[in-house]
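Q: Entry one of two.
A:
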Amino acid sequence: LANLSLLMAQINPTYALYRAIVQHYPGSGSGRSNISRTHEYNVFFLPRNRDLLRGNLKNEGVRERGFRRAGTGSNNYRSGRPNSFFAVVVDATNKKIVRIEKPPVDNYTMEDTEEGYKRVFPIGEDGSERVWTLSYEGALEALKDERLRVSDNLSIIRIYHDEANRNLVDSVWVNSKFNATTHGTNLLTDLFGNSGLFSYPKSVYTVQTAIDTATYNDPDAIIIDTFAGSGTTAHAIIKLNKHEQTNDKKYVLVEMGAYFDLVTKPRVQKAIYSDDWQNGKPQDSGKSGSSQIVKNIKLESYEDALNNLKFTQQTDAQRSFLENDKALERNYRINYMLDFESQDSPSLLDVKQFEDPFNYEMLIQDDSNRLVPKNVDLVDTFNYLIGLNVDHIEQKKGFVVVHGKQNDGTRTLIIWRNVNENPNDKLNEFLEKSAYNPRDGEFDVIYVNGDNNVENLQTADDAWKVRLIEEEFHKRMFN
């Protein structure tokens, strides 16, 4: 901690460092002599003189309102929001919510349950079928978080938290939810049905609280974890979004460990599907799940890139000599071939494969150290390579078309095709029917794979408007 603090202060002296102690192993800490360490630290690195962190809600930050929607718009009625019309089952004696029933598809009953509990629907005073202020899934989460209660006259009350009224962050975090054994190790055991998959996972609530502390006033925050580990950060954000219905926080995880496919990725999938697991099985059949898209991007390693380099200057004798000594081949390839033998070599990038870009392959080393061909997403790779913020992407009639802006604001159109299936006459026909005209001002630059005769114009900066993807790819990678 001391070295980290000094290092961070050296990196950016205009930032201030704050620490919070978290009791993460109460009563069973680590250490074999003198002191048993039962805590760890959260470190926050913030611009000086900025008041950005907030902790628990103040008492006056809690308010209550009726759970039933008012108003005359269609979204206040069952016909407009059928997923928000359902029964809240209430114990009238103890004034407690027992459970929430699924939205009825057609007919429904307002009679008491077999146990004698009351079914409360969002029926208006005039008998109209209104709706609750949350969907069925949102209500399940609110009930779990104790944000719904029953009034004396059996009305349903929703509890709101005013995010603007928060206390400063405590310097010591002591709560059973921060226990890394219960909400870290045991949580993984519940998710996967066996233990020992990952050593020392953090409590999901420690990470959730830390993220909420720093982003409580930014519902669309993007959180990046460059050492994703078991995936606690993603799990915490998924829970945080469920807890606060207005949140749409996103996460970016980076991990190179072999446990990514065994723990990190499946944990994210499981956390999305359900919030309640035991012995590797969901306990609610996905009822507490959430709908989202997760993009899984795999980057080839440096070694994979080297394994795919080809050099036209190399003779058969050279190749044979190097193949007999793998260590020599590696050193030769890195220290000599890249600098000398690759000069002006068109085969550094397998341009021939660009004729069928949707089936581009690279040799990737598998777990058995074998080189096996695997498909590469050239469309996505090129988007990242040129720094494209994608607005729209679609596949139609054998073409993949991408619209977007590069980081410098350049309005960009990219057209991919299988050159053999869609030669230039079909390309020109496609452009005409799609109303893509190189002469108009809709796009600043148009990229097309494969040699073509698309009408080209020279722009004010002496660059051509229509450019070959292969040439741009090679320039961006190697120049």
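Q: Entry two of two.
A:
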Amino acid sequence: WDYCECNPLSHSTANWSATAEWTALAILQLPATATAQAIQLSAAAERRGRASLLVSTDPPYYDNIGYADLSDFFYVWLRRSLGDIYPELFNTLLTPKAEELIASPYRHGGKEKAQEFFENGLGKVFENIRKVQPVEFPMTVFYAFKQTEGTEAELGGGHPGRQKEQAGETHAPQTSSNLHGETADPQSQHVSTGWETMLSGLIDSGFAITGTWPMRTELGNRMVGAGTNALASSIVLSCRPRPADAPVATRHEFLAALKKELPDALRHLQDGNIAPVDLAQASIGPGMAIFTHYAKVMEADGSTMGVRAALGLINQLLDEILAQQEGEFDAETRWALAWFEQFGMEDGPFGEAETLSRAKNTAVNGLVEAGIISARSGKVRMLKRSELPSDWSPGTDKRLVHWEIAQHLIRALENGGETVAANILRQLGSNGELARDLAYHLYNLCDRKKWAQETLAYNSLIIAWPEISKLAYKTPGTSQTQEEMFR
């Protein structure tokens, strides 16, 4: 559990004096005639006769956080010390929990009933908002929840240096539709239940997503984020009532619209330097904006496509788009990607390496000269970052390849920080941006294989890229500011 309390008598962030000062500064920005009222109410309870309300909300995260349980950690001590002073605030032994809108199995008699409670409650909330939402303005929903989910063992990660059977191929496909056929595995079994439930509630209550922005809301120094691939961004969904005359689309029409619009949207996100760990959930916005443009999407068998199936198709197309970007890389890097996906950092047969090199229009001896593999005794192995020469310089390397560049940038960042990485980037020209694109591709590959340590390396490079670029060129890098992404 991560919580925000600190020592109020300290001189650190959020000490008592600073908090009072910041609050006063905020109040001073209000018009002199402004009035405000804070009310604690149930968002799921229907209320009639209320004026229009402009709503911005960060909904509960399914079963991910037990807010009331966390409150009890502090409540029991506050009740002992302040119960006589504020009896109306502390008239219960523990904090109220019956109406708390989370999917808590122990509170509702099992997982299914907890899910039903959460789904029904969230649906009522969005229905109530729909009735009071002014037509002039959108509702905004902030959500920071990983787009995919897996078993505890899978999410715990692994490493490409371990055995291949541990590194991947752990998914048991469920029956669904893919991009090209009628039945396949669109990764729907790993679509986040939190995202699915939240989006279903939005859509079923009559909202459509009209815009989406990733916003860097999470501090890198928070406890849950330290040394992990925790999300750095919240996704802000701009939602308006869906028009009554919204069209009905077939599955084919929905896919055609996705293929037309999603690649540009994803490139826009990458240009804005979205962290790879956030890319999958950020792609939900433009993808679901297309999906919610329609009153409904019809499957080939006449049934209505659900949110989980739509998210699965969006995930598949995201993988395809990243795979298509592979064509931008040099032949040696394309070989390295295929080999890395199959063998990780383990030894592989020389014969397979040679066959793959011919398919990728390169040669094993050329890969050795490029400094990305070791080939001896009939075995071939990718060189680890720790094995790369510490005195490497792109200016003196006669056979620069994008794979090598990306690995050296990560090594420089890990060992010497952003300044050392900037010294390398300054010498790379356009190859630097291609190395960044490769980091996105490799993050996606390693995330699919559950190689947690490697995903952390590529994610860290992208997050640090704006500062590295700034130091390299002495001016802000080419990545967009958050304000520019709203234009």
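A: Comment on entry two: Confidence is low (pLDDT under 50) at residues 149-159, 161-189, 221-229. The radius of gyration is 26 Å.
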